[in-house]
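Action item from last week, closing it out:
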Amino acid sequence: MTNIIDKCLEAGLRITNQRRIIIELIDSADDHPDVDTIYRRAIDIDDTISLATIYRTVSLLEQADLIEKVEVGDGKARYELARGHHEHLVDVDNGDIHEFYHAELEELKEKIARDMGFELVGHRLELFGRKLKPN
């Protein structure tokens, strides 16, 4: 938690108690919460936090590249700390988001871009799947 607070301060963000709560909730989440989920969790800690405060804080954190938006096709923007590049595999049956990194996939994306005459400067990849049933 200290690391993300330090990054906020370095980015020039003022850390109020309410912002600290929101940051902690995103930092400690084992899922990828949307704004409504962050709000519900936040008011359990401090019932004076408004939904507008959540939206403003999430926007500031995203603009400072401290959190990233994850969109998985359910119409809700979800959030996670910016912790380095990785992909997402979404379970279509329960909505769980599984993070992964695969070096060969990274190389393939670079190769595809080069083969098409491009320098890859960014991308977003979400895979959607269903758990296989054991035979």
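Closing note: The two ends are 43 Å apart (CA to CA).
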